[in-house]
Design brief:
Mean pLDDT of chain B: 84
Structural class of chain B: alpha+beta
Strand content of chain B: 25-35%
Radius of gyration of chain B: 31 Å
Radius of gyration of chain A: 31 Å
Mean pLDDT of chain A: 89
Shape of chain A: flat
Oligomer: heterodimer
Low-confidence stretches of chain A: none
Strand content of chain A: 35-45%
Number of strands of chain A: 13
Low-confidence stretches of chain B: 1-6, 100-104
Structural class of chain A: alpha+beta
Helix content of chain A: 25-40%
Largest interface: A-B, 49 and 44 residues
Number of strands of chain B: 20
Distance between the termini of chain B: 63 Å
Shape of chain B: flat
Helix content of chain B: 25-40%
Largest sheet of chain A: 11 strands, mixed
Chain lengths: 370, 433
C-alpha cells in the first residue's frame, strides 16, 4: 500500500463548524502543535507546552470526526485532591505551585490517536511456542538424610509455522502525535475499552489536540501495529501460547482512518525564574505527572533567617562569657547558646541546599508521576 | 518483524509442510510434516540371492548371508554423543511408567506366517519353523521409548573365548588351573538396554566449618607455655554447579549389575542411529527397569556427586551440621542398546557368569577364589605385626626398646589388617554376581 493512496487531510481556516461543534483552529508557536478550541481560549497559555500562547491559525484537519472518545471519568473535586497531594510533597515550593492555582488553570484536553481499519491478505511465517510441562526435582540433604521434592516446570517448545492470512482488522491503534509515547508514559495509559462513540456534546468545552502525524507519516507505525495484531491472530490460529520471529508479506486494502480521543487535564505553574512548567492529569484514571520545582529563593530566605538566629545566639553566648566573671552561672548558659548557635548555623545549610538537590533530581527524571 | 507490502497470491507452502487445523477463520496454518516412525513392521532377514537366513556380521559390518556370501552394508549414521536426548515431559513420564507391558507379545513370521511368541523382554526372535531372523520393536508404549541409538558389536564373536580364557588365567588368588580347565559355553551376543541421563545441578550448601588455629596456653603441670591446635567453628554457605553428562544406568534387571558395571566404560561417541539390521541374528533385550526407576537410581548418584562437589567447595576438612539443596535442571534421558557377550562357564561343577564388552573387549564376571591362598596371604600379612608385638611384650620390662617394639608390632598389625580386609573384600567381589 503506497503512502500516496492514503486519505488526504485538508487545511481549514478560521472559525468553522468542525466535527459538529463550533471550535476554531489554533496553534502554539512554541511547540508547533495545533488545536481546535473555543474562540474564548485564543490568547491563553498553550495546554500542551505551557510556554507559548494559543493563536488563531489554519490547521490540517480531516473532514470526518473522530470515531471514539474516552470520556473524562475524573471530575473537578477528584482533580483538586490529586493536585493537593501532588504539590504537598514539595517542601519550599514556589508560591505559584499550589493546588488552588493549578486548579484555576486546569484545561480539559482530548489528545488523539489514529484508529486504522484494514483488510490484510498475504502469507506469514513465525515460530510458535507451545507450553509443556516437565518433571524436575529438588533434593535436600539435612540431618544425614535426603528429601526429594517434585517440581513441575513449564517450558516452551518452539516450532515453525507458516501459512496464508486473509483477515480484517478494525481499530488498530497508531500514534497521531509525535510525543505519543511520552504522553502515554506520563499519563500511565488508558483503558480504551471504555471509549464511546464521538459526540460534540461529549467534547463540551474541551480543547481538541490535533494530530501532528498525518496518516502519510503514521502509516509505517500503523503497519507495525497491524502486523502485531496479525502475529497475535496467527498464534491463536496455530493454537500456540507464544509467537516470535513473525514475518509477513501482505497487501493492505480498504484502509479507513479515524481517531480515538483521550481525556487529559493540563495545568501549569511558574517557578522562581518565571518559567512555566506543565502538569498533566489523566482524565480517566487521575494519574498526574509533571516536574515539581522547589523554590531556591525561599531556600535562601530560610537559610538567612536561620543564620540570623544563629548569630543572635552567638552574640548572646559571647555576652554570657563576658559577664560570667560577675555571675559564674552565666557561663553555662553561654555554652548552651554557643551550641545552639552552632546547630542552627549548620541547619541553615539544609534549606539552602534542599531546593538545589530536589530540582536537580526533578530535572534528571524526565517523567514525574504521583 | 519483517515488513513487506508485496502481494503474495500464488503462495505455496514449502516442501515438507502440511496444512493443519486452524483455530481462526481466514488464517491457514502449515506445520512441518511429522516424521513417520521408521520401524513400523517387524523386519525379516532373508537373503535376496539364495533365500537363506541372513544376520548381522561384525567382520563384514553389514547384514550377510553365510551361504552365498551376499553382504549388504548397514545404512545408518554415527551420531555419537549428539544422539537425541529427551526431556522428562509429563506425557513421557506417564507412558514410561507403563513399561513395555505384556500386551502384543504375539507376532507373525513375515516369512512363513507362523505365529510366534517373543520371550519376555526380547526384541528379536528366530522363527523355529523357517529359521528367519526377525526384529520387532513395536511394543513400546510410545515412539520415544523405542531404542533410537545403539553401539554395534565391534568385537568378533570368535575373539570372545580367547579373551575370556586370558582373563580367567589372570589373578594370583584364583585356582591355578582355572584358565586351562574352565569349560566356557558359547558366548551369546546380546544388545542390552541402558538409560543415559544428563542434568545440571545447582546446589546451595550451608554448614558449620571448622578452621584450625594455633593457640598458646600455660601448662600448670610442666609450668611452661605450650601450643595447641583449636578449631573455630563458623557458619558458611556456598553454591556449586555440577554438570552431569551421560550417566549410565542399566535397563535390565536380568543380568548382574555388579558385573555389568565392571564392563564400563562404553564409548558413547560411537553411538549409531538405530536400525534393525544390527539386531538381525542377535539377541536384544528391551528394558525392564522402567525410566522412572532408572531415573531414581541416577538421581541418587547425581545428588551424591552434588554433595561431593559441595564438600570440595568447603575450605576446610572440618565440617558439621552440613545441609544442602540441589536444584536439578535440564534433565534429559536417552534409551540406548549396548553390545555385550554373555556366557557361563563351569569349574569344579559350579557355574559362573562371564561377560565381554562387545565394543571394547573388556571382560568381567565371576571368578572362583582359591580360599587357601587368601587365608595364607592374610596370615602372612598379619604375622609380622603379631610376631614383633609378641616380642615387644616381654621386652616392655626392659623399658624404651620394648615400648618401641610393641608399638612397631601394633603398627604392622594395623597395616597388615587393612590390607587383609581389602584382599578379603576383593576375593568376595570376585565370586559375587
Amino acid at each position: 500500500m503506497a503512502a500516496t493512496n492514503l486519505p488526504k487531510t485538508k487545511i481549514i481556516g478560521a472559525v468553522e463548524s468542525a466535527w459538529g461543534g463550533s471550535l476554531q483552529p489554533a496553534g502554539c508557536i512554541q511547540c508547533g502543535q495545533a488545536f481546535l478550541v473555543e474562540s474564548s481560549r485564543i490568547g491563553q497559555v498553550c495546554p500542551n507546552c505551557a510556554q507559548g500562547q494559543l493563536e488563531s491559525q489554519p490547521a490540517q484537519l480531516r473532514s470526518e470526526p473522530p470515531e471514539l472518545v474516552i470520556p473524562f471519568a475524573k471530575k473537578r473535586p477528584d482533580v483538586q485532591a490529586t493536585l493537593a497531594n501532588f504539590v504537598k510533597e514539595v517542601w519550599l515550593r514556589p508560591d505559584d505551585l499550589n493546588a488552588e492555582r493549578l486548579l484555576e488553570r486546569i484545561v480539559p484536553v482530548y489528545w488523539p490517536m489514529w484508529l486504522v481499519d484494514s483488510d490484510v491478505s498475504g502469507s506469514w511465517k513465525a515460530e510458535i511456542g507451545f507450553d509443556y510441562q516437565v518433571k524436575s526435582s529438588q533434593e535436600s540433604y539435612a540431618g544425614g538424610g535426603w528429601h526429594s521434592k517434585e517440581v513441575i516446570e513449564t517450558r516452551i517448545r518452539w516450532e515453525p509455522r507458516l501459512g496464508k492470512l486473509s483477515r480484517q482488522y478494525n481499530n488498530i491503534s497508531a500514534p497521531a502525535l509525535s510525543n505519543h509515547k511520552q504522553l502515554l508514559e506520563q499519563t500511565g495509559g488508558y483503558r480504551s475499552g471504555q471509549a464511546e462513540p464521538y459526540s460534540a456534546e461529549e467534547i463540551g468545552h474541551a480543547v481538541l489536540h490535533l494530530p501532528d502525524l498525518q496518516p502519510e507519516s503514521a502509516w509505517p507505525l500503523a503497519q507495525t501495529s497491524l502486523q502485531r495484531a496479525s502475529a497475535e491472530e496467527c498464534r491463536q490460529a496455530a493454537a500456540g501460547q507464544h509467537v516470535r520471529n513473525f514475518a509477513m508479506q501482505a497487501e493492505y486494502s480498504a484502509l479507513n482512518w479515524t481517531q480515538l480521543l483521550h481525556p487529559l487535564f493540563t495545568s501549569y505553574y511558574s517557578d522562581d525564574q518565571g518559567h512555566r512548567h506543565p502538569i498533566y492529569i489523566n482524565g480517566q484514571n487521575g494519574t498526574i505527572s509533571g516536574v515539581r520545582m522547589a523554590s531556591q529563593r525561599k531556600g535562601w530566605i530560610w537559610a538567612g533567617i536561620l543564620i540570623a538566629i544563629a548569630v543572635i545566639f552567638l552574640l548572646l553566648g559571647v555576652l554570657g562569657f563576658v559577664l560570667s566573671p560577675m555571675l559564674p552561672a552565666l557561663s553555662v548558659i553561654a555554652i548552651l547558646f554557643e551550641i545552639l548557635a552552632f546547630v542552627i548555623g549548620v541547619s541553615s545549610l539544609i534549606p539552602a541546599i534542599y531546593p538545589w538537590q530536589w530540582n536537580r533530581r526533578q530535572k534528571e527524571r524526565k517523567i514525574v508521576r504521583a | 518483524m519483517t515488513l513487506s507490502t508485496s502481494t503474495n497470491q500464488d503462495w505455496q507452502p514449502p516442501t515438507g509442510y502440511a496444512q493443519i487445523a486452524s483455530a481462526l477463520e481466514g488464517i491457514e496454518v502449515f506445520a512441518p510434516q511429522p516424521e513417520v516412525p521408521e520401524v513400523e513392521a517387524p523386519s525379516v532377514y532373508k537373503c535376496p540371492q539364495c533365500g537363506a537366513t541372513t544376520r548381522y556380521n561384525v567382520a563384514a559390518g553389514g547384514v550377510a548371508c553365510e551361504h552365498c556370501g551376499y553382504t549388504a552394508p548397514v545404512q545408518t549414521e554415527q551420531v555419537g554423543r549428539r544422539a537425541d536426548e529427551f526431556e522428562f515431559t509429563i506425557e513421557t513420564w506417564k507412558q514410561a511408567e507403563q513399561g513395555w507391558g505384556v500386551a502384543r507379545r504375539e507376532m507373525h513370521c513375515e516369512s512363513c506366517g507362523a505365529s510366534l511368541t517373543l520371550p519376555e523382554g526380547a526384541l528379536t526372535i528366530t522363527c523355529p519353523f523357517c529359521a528367519s531372523n526377525e526384529v520387532n520393536v513395536r511394543e513400546a508404549p510410545s515412539d520415544v521409548l523405542r531404542p533410537r541409538f545403539l553401539i554395534p558389536f565391534k568385537i568378533l564373536p570368535e575373539a570372545t573365548r580367547s579373551r575370556a580364557k586370558e582373563w580367567l588365567g589372570k589373578g594370583w588368588f584364583h585356582p591355578s588351573e582355572l584358565g586351562a580347565s574352565a569349560v566356557i559355553e558359547r558366548f551369546t551376543g546380546i544388545y542390552l538396554p541402558f538409560w543415559t541421563f544428563d542434568a545440571r545441578i545447582t546446589a546451595d550448601w550451608r554448614a558449620e566449618v571448622g578452621h584450625e588455629r594455633q593457640e598458646s596456653y600455660y601448662d600448670a603441670g610442666s609450668k611452661s607455655w605450650k601450643t595447641r591446635t583449636v578449631i573455630d567453628w563458623r557458619w558458611e554457605n556456598g553454591r556449586v554447579a555440577v554438570k552431569i553428562d551421560d550417566l549410565m544406568v542399566t535397563g535390565s534387571s536380568r543380568l548382574s549389575r555388579l558385573i555389568m558395571e565392571r564392563l564400563y566404560p562404553f564409548n558413547l561417541g560411537e553411538l549409531d542411529k538405530y536400525t534393525p539390521d544390527y539386531l538381525a541374528g542377535w539377541q536384544a533385550q528391551a528394558y525392564d527397569v522402567t525410566l522412572p526407576d532408572a531415573w531414581e537410581d541416577a538421581k541418587d548418584q547425581m545428588r551424591e556427586k552434588g554433595k561431593d562437589a559441595c564438600y570440595e567447595d568447603i575450605s576446610s576438612s572440618h565440617v558439621r551440621n552440613f545441609s544442602m539443596t540441589a536444584d536439578f535442571g535440564d534433565e534429559t534421558w536417552r534409551y540406548i542398546l549396548l553390545p555385550v557377550y554373555v556366557a557361563a562357564y563351569k569349574f569344579e561343577d559350579k557355574v559362573y557368569q562371564v561377560m565381554v564388552n562387545g565394543q571394547t573387549g573388556v571382560v568381567a564376571g565371576q571368578k572362583p577364589v582359591a580360599w587357601w591362598k587368601i587365608w595364607l596371604a592374610i596370615a602372612a600379612l598379619l604375622s609380622p605385626g603379631l610376631f614383633v608385638g609378641l616380642l615387644g611384650l616381654p621386652a616392655l620390662l626392659l623399658g624404651g626398646a620394648g615400648v618401641f617394639l610393641f608399638l612397631l608390632g601394633f603398627v604392622l598389625l594395623v597395616i597388615g589388617g587393612a590390607i587383609s580386609i581389602a584382599l578379603y573384600r576383593k576375593a568376595i567381589e570376585s565370586e559375587a554376581a
